[in-house]
Design brief:
four-stranded parallel beta sheet, Rossmann fold, Fumarate Reductase Iron-sulfur Protein, Chain B, domain 2, 24 helices, disordered N terminus
Length: 463
C-alpha cells in the first residue's frame, strides 16, 4: 500500500505507509474501546465507498479512502504496523462525513471504527502527534465551560467591531502565518445579541400540544442566534411548548470525533441528567452534527453501568428539527418567499441520521420558493467540525468544488441544517465573490410564516 507523494498536502498524505511486519507484533490498540474485530471484518473490500469519499475523489489514493483506512486500522490492531506520523496522517485526513456508510452494501460502521481508532491513538502513552495533543487541550479547555465560550465570543465580537477592519486595511494580517490568516478569514460576523437559554418555557402560540426541549449548543447561540429564535417561533406556532434549560452543555461531538472519549462522556452524562429530568417527549436539535452524536450517546456510554440505560432512553428522544417538523402539519399559514434555493445536505444529517427527504419537503412547501437540486448535495463541503482548521488545504479544495456546484444552480440562497456547514458556505461565498446567503432550513420556514402573517394582516385590513 504505497503511492506517489501528493503535492501540497498538510501531513504528507502521499507518503508510503509503514511496511507490514513479517510477523505480527503486539497490538498498539490495547485500551478500553479499540476498534472491534467484528466491525473491521464487515468490510469486504468491494470498493463501493471509493466514489463517495471526498478525500479519495480529490487525491485518488487508496490510503485516503475508507477501504484503505480500514486496512490501516486493521493492521494497527493486529500489530502489523506501528502508529507512525504517516499512518496517523492518513487517518487524520478523514472528514468523518460517513458518506461511505450510505454507500456500503455490507453495513460497515465506519464512523464508529474511525472514532474508536482515534480514541486509541489519543490514549497512546507515546507517539500521539503534537497537533492532536494541542487540539485536545483547546477543546477540553473550551467546550465543557459555557462561560469560557461566551467570553471568547465576546472577545471575537470586540475584535470584529474595533480591530478587524483596521488590521485588514493596514495589511498587518499578512504578517501572520498562513494558517492563522486562513482561520481569521473564516470568522463569521458575530451578531450584536447572543441567544440566551431560557430558564422558563417558551409557550405555544396556540393550544398546547407537545412539550419539547431544545439543545442550544456551543456554536449556534453566538454565531446564529437568529436560527434559534426562528426555531422557537416555528415550534410555538406548531403547538409546542419549548424548554431550553441553561444547565445544558456542549453535546461533545467535536471531542468524540477527535478521539477524546472521556471528555465527551462527561458532557453526555451532564446532558442526559439535565434533559431526562425535564420529562419532555422530544429533545430537538437544529445542528445536525450535534444531533448525530446525541443519537449515539447509547453507544458512547454502552459500558457505563450507571448511564447505559439512561443513554439509550435519552438517544431515543433526540430528533433533528426538520425530522420533527416534517411530522407536524407545518404547511398551514405559509406565505411566499420568492427566491431560488439549493440545499447542501449536512453529512451528519444525510449519512449519520438518514435525513434527506424532510428538509426538502419543508423547502418545497414554501410558496414561490424555487428549489433547485445541487450536484453532489450530500458531498461534504469541507467543514467537518474543525476540519477546516486542522486540514486547511483539503478543506479549501472541497469548498472550491462545492462553490462550483452551487454556482451551477444559480441559487440566491444555500440552505443547510448544520451551523458548521453554514459557516463554511458563507466563507466560500465570500471567497468566490458570489452573491447570496447561507441559512438554515428553519430560517426559511420562519420567513414563510412571517410572510403569511403579513399577507393575512393586509388582507384583513383590506377587508
Amino acid at each position: 500500500m504505497s503511492e506517489k507523494p501528493a503535492a501540497g498536502t498538510e501531513h504528507s498524505v502521499g507518503t508510503s505507509v509503514e511496511p507490514v511486519a513479517p510477523q505480527a507484533q503486539a497490538s498498539v490498540f490495547t485500551g478500553r474501546n479499540g476498534p472491534r474485530p467484528e466491525d473491521l471484518s464487515r468490510c469486504v473490500h468491494c470498493g463501493f465507498c471509493l466514489n463517495h469519499c471526498p478525500t479519495y475523489l480529490e487525491l485518488g489514493l487508496e490510503t485516503e479512502s475508507p477501504r484503505g483506512r480500514i486496512h490501516l486500522i486493521g493492521a494497527l490492531s493486529e500489530g502489523r504496523i506501528q502508529p507512525t506520523s504517516a499512518v496517523i496522517g492518513h487517518l487524520d485526513l478523514c472528514l468523518q462525513c460517513r458518506a461511505c456508510e450510505t454507500a456500503c452494501p455490507s453495513g460497515v460502521p465506519y464512523g464508529r471504527i474511525m472514532e474508536d481508532a482515534r480514541a486509541q491513538i489519543q490514549s497512546l502513552p507515546k507517539g500521539r502527534p503534537p497537533a492532536w495533543r494541542l487540539r485536545s487541550f483547546v477543546l477540553r479547555a473550551l467546550l465543557p465551560h459555557p462561560r469560557r465560550i461566551r467570553l471568547l465570543a465576546r472577545l471575537l465580537r470586540l475584535y470584529q467591531r474595533r480591530l478587524q477592519g483596521l488590521l485588514r486595511r493596514s495589511r498587518l494580517l499578512r504578517l501572520l502565518p498562513a494558517r492563522l490568516r486562513e482561520m481569521e478569514s473564516l470568522l463569521p460576523r458575530l451578531p450584536d445579541r447572543f441567544f440566551e437559554p431560557a430558564a422558563v418555557a417558551i409557550e405555544s402560540a396556540g393550544p398546547h400540544v407537545r412539550t419539547v426541549a431544545l439543545l442550544t449548543g456551543c456554536i449556534m447561540p453566538y454565531v446564529y442566534p437568529q436560527t434559534h429564535e426562528a426555531t422557537l417561533r416555528v415550534l410555538a406556532r406548531n403547538g409546542c411548548r419549548v424548554l431550553a434549560p441553561p444547565e445544558q452543555v456542549c453535546c461533545g461531538a467535536l471531542l468524540t470525533h477527535n478521539g477524546d472519549r472521556e471528555a465527551a462522556r462527561k458532557l453526555a452524562r451532564r446532558n442526559i441528567d439535565v434533559f431526562l429530568g425535564l420529562g419532555v417527549e422530544a429533545v430537538l436539535v437544529n445542528a445536525a452534527g450535534c444531533g448525530a452524536t446525541m443519537k449515539e450517546y447509547g453507544e458512547l456510554l454502552h459500558d457505563d453501568p450507571q448511564y447505559a440505560d439512561k443513554a439509550q432512553q435519552f438517544s431515543a428522544l433526540v430528533r433533528d428539527i426538520t425530522e420533527f417538523i416534517a411530522e407536524l402539519p407545518w404547511q398551514e399559514g405559509l406565505g411566499p418567499v420568492p427566491t431560488r434555493v439549493t440545499l447542501q445536505d449536512s453529512c451528519h444529517a444525510a449519512h449519520a441520521q438518514g435525513i434527506t427527504a424532510q428538509p426538502r419537503a419543508i423547502l418545497q412547501s414554501i410558496p414561490e420558493l424555487e428549489f433547485v437540486e445541487m450536484e453532489g448535495s450530500d458531498r461534504c463541503c469541507g467543514s467537518g467540525g474543525i476540519y477546516n482548521v486542522t486540514q486547511q488545504e483539503m478543506s479549501r479544495r472541497l469548498l472550491d468544488s462545492k462553490m462550483r456546484d452551487i454556482k451551477a444552480t444559480a441559487s440566491e440562497v444555500v440552505a443547510s441544517t448544520n451551523p458548521g456547514c453554514m459557516l463554511q458556505l458563507e466563507a466560500g461565498l465570500r471567497r468566490a465573490g458570489m452573491e447570496g446567503r447561507a441559512v438554515h432550513v428553519v430560517d426559511l420556514l420562519d420567513e414563510a410564516y412571517t410572510a403569511g402573517d403579513r399577507a393575512k394582516g393586509e388582507s384583513e385590513k383590506g377587508g
